[in-house]
Structures are given as C-alpha cells and as structure tokens.
Amino acid sequence: MTRFCYNSGKLQINPLNLTPLHCVAHFMEMNKTASGSLNLLERTEKSLEEIRYWTWSELLVALKQCQDLLPVANSCNVLEIYLDSLVGRLSLASETSPCPSTSSPDSFDTQSYESLKSSSFRATWWFEDLVALNPYLIEMVTKSMVSWKFDHATISRFLFYYQKSRFIRATSDEKRVIAETVVNMLSLLDWSAISCKSLFGILRVALSLNISKLVRYKLESMIGSQMDQATLDNLLVPPQAGVNYLYDVNLVLSFVKSFVGQGLCCVPLVRLKKVAGLMDLYIAEVAPDPCLKPSKFLYLVTALPDYARENYDAIYHAMDMYLEVHAALSEEEKVNVCYGLNYEKLSSEVYKHLTQNKKFPSKSAVQTLISPQCNLKSLRGGTDHREPFIDSSRSFAEIDIKGKKDEACEQIVLYARKLDLPAENEKLRANLQGMQWRVAELEKLRAKMQNQMTKMLKSRSSSHRNGRSLPRLCS
C-alpha cells in the first residue's frame, strides 16, 4: 500500500499479492481516484476478473492468504470469489481431466494426462492440496461443493482424509474443532453415502475430545441410520470415565434408537433382522458384566420390536448367562428381566432346557408351561386373542415393568411353586377344556332363553293391540 501511495500508483499486481492488496484497499477505503488513474480498490477488482487464468497453485496460495485476513476477506467478498473458482475447477476436473488448470494444458504432456485420467487419482488428487486450509475454510468449501451437487461419497472421503491428516500435528483443542467441523459437514450429506466404518473411527476419537452434545448427537444419528452395516467390534466401545460398565451400553442404545427412529415402516425387514442379529451378539457380549443393571439389560433386549427376531434362542442364552452372573437378584428383579423373552419363539430344545433351568424365576416356568396352551381364542367367540403373561413385543420406550400386573397370574405363580409342573400339565389342559365346554353350554342356554323372551314379547305386544291381556311372566 505504501509503494502504491508513494510511487504514483505504480505497482505490479499478481495472484500472489492480490489478496492482501485487495483486503487493505477495502479496509482503508482506498476508492478515490487521483491524477486520473485507477485507485487501488479498482485495480485489484479488475485483477480479480482475470482469476479464470490463474493456475491451481496460485489459487491455493490466495486461499491460504485469506486465512489470516478472514474478517476483511469475508466482508469484501474476495473469499467467495476464490471458493467459487476452486469448486468450479474441481467440478470441471471431475468430469474432464485430473487437473483443474484447464487454462494451461501444456503443463501436462499427453501421456501423463491419459494415465492420470484412467486412474483412481482422478477423483482424489485434490485431497492433499486442501489439507492446508483451516476448518473454517473447509466448512465453506464443503457447503459450496454440496450446492454444486458434488458426489457425496467423494466429499465424505475427503472429510475423513482431512481429519486424519490434520490430527497428526494438531493440539487437543485443535482436534476438537476439526472433529466438530468434519461431523457437522458430514451431517449435510446423504448419510447412506458415508462409510459406516469411518464414522466409527471418528467416533472413537471424538469421544475423547469432549465434543459438544449437539455434534455427538449428529454423529450417533448418522451411525444409527446405517447400523445394519456395523459389526460387533464396532459396538464394543469402552465407557466414559466414571462408568463401571465393560462397554458403553448407552451409546449402543442411542444407535438403536436412531435406527428405529427412521420409522419402522420405512426400514426393510431384512435390515431390521440384521440389526436384531447384531444386537443378539452384543447382548451376549455384555451379559457377563456384573455391573450391568437389570433395567439396562432389559432395554437392550426390548430395543427392537418383537417381529425383528425369528426366534429368541440367542436372547435366552444371554439371559441365562446374565442370571448366572447376577444370582443375587431378587425374584421380582428376575421376573422383570424375563419380560423381554418371547417364550413362543423358543426352539423345542431351548424350551426343554428352560423348563428345568433353576436360574429362571418360577413365573418363567409357569409361562413355558401354559404359553403353548393358554394362547387360545377367547372362550366366547373364538376370535379374540388372549394376551400372554409377558408382552415381549413392547419396545423399551413403552414397557412399564412395575405396572399392570395380573393378580390372577400372581396367584397361579404362587400356587405353581408348590406343584410338580410336568405332572400338573395334563390336569391344567383338562381343566381348561372343561371350562371351555361349560362356557359353550351356558352360551347355548343364554341364546335359547333370549329367543324365547323375544317370542313372548312379540306375543304380548300383539295381544295388547287386540285388547287382551297376557298372564304375568315368571321371573
């Protein structure tokens, strides 16, 4: 600026000094013409019009200079001009050539051009060049790419590359800012285009950086939306400091909640069953944890709807292991744990094992006895379905363990403790059949009496019209 003022406006402007000159001219309001020559602001604006002739390296230098002049560079719109040029070249390069410097094709010979064009380098050659930009500029570049409809898979790959490269020499605070920026930008993309494995990679790093709750929620939601692509190793995340669990159970529950939150009607059954299989493996892994509370174990079991599992054998084995480790649980706590087990979806082998399993509460034993038999139609019409002892189809968001207990079921349980269940099985079936027969007979009698009463009322009405009286009906 001093040279310009004391050299009668004579100054060589080029891509390497244009950014600071334009910013200082804007900041100092050097927009007045002297001696008929262009002022500094006008000269820099005219030079900006030739940005399409700059090389790729010159454009990168100009962008890096903006990092030290961000407030002014934003206010004078020079940063926006650079970003539009950068993203425009990347867009053109992804379609035609591996190099954005289309204004100077002679810098590449034909042989190297063809080799680069046919290689994977074509889509990612610019990754390393943009690593030098700070998180703020990366945020602006990413948003610009999204508006230009760049391939979201390529953008996500760049963001993960940027995070890993910048972490090498970054401080703890810088890592936190980088991680939050990357996650925020990933959330703008099509989540199905993002690598689930890479999301878990940044999750493990981000959890140690004390990222904001909002950013963590976004990360958990992205992972949860494609949980069917995760593996058991991905889910075995150590807990946060101060938590005694072997693994971060709350984190996995958050994943499942995000997966189910997409709307079960929108999730294909194949994906739902895949997540159910993954959860069965995870539950078996955390079942031996002596610090895992019964309520938390039950939430894991009931996190998915009942129809997501074709059978509950894996859940039974995990529950058996859990009750073995937590042998000190009260009878009521054991019953609550068993609320998540669907006895009708147990294989015959597991069913037989359960009838002899002393680790399970007596209520479960009664359930295995009467579930195949008491899951009957209603005694009246044979159309209504009886509710089972335990509604295992409830999700963890709806289940109320302590409420709605059936007093009759409790009496059966108390009585069952004194019974030899295998010996009483046939007696119970005979009693139920007898009750059905008696109710059916009563129903026939009621229908017959109702028919007789209808005929008598019609006869009485007819006699009344004819002026005759009828004898008084018996009660």
Describe the protein.
The chain has 475 residues and is an all-alpha fold. The chain is 59% helix and 0% strand. Helix 17 packs parallel to helix 19. It is elongated. It starts with a helix and ends in a 10-residue tail after the last helix. The C terminus is likely disordered.
Share in β-strands? under 5%
Q: Report, as a whole number of angstroms, the end-to-end distance.
A: 116 Å
Number of helices: 24
Mean pLDDT: 79
Q: Main beta sheet, described? A: none
What overall geometry do the principal axes of the alpha carbons give?
elongated
Report the helical percentage: 55-70%
Summarize the structure.
The chain has 24 helices and no strands.
Jot down its keywords.
475 residues, 24 helices, elongated, disordered C terminus
Element layout with pairings:
Layout: H1 2-6, H2 18-27, H3 40-48, H4 56-67, H5 70-75, H6 78-95, H7 110-117, H8 121-124, H9 127-130, H10 135-147, H11 152-167, H12 172-186, H13 196-206, H14 213-225, H15 232-235, H16 249-260, H17 269-286, H18 294-301, H19 313-325, H20 331-337, H21 348-355, H22 362-374, H23 407-416, H24 421-465
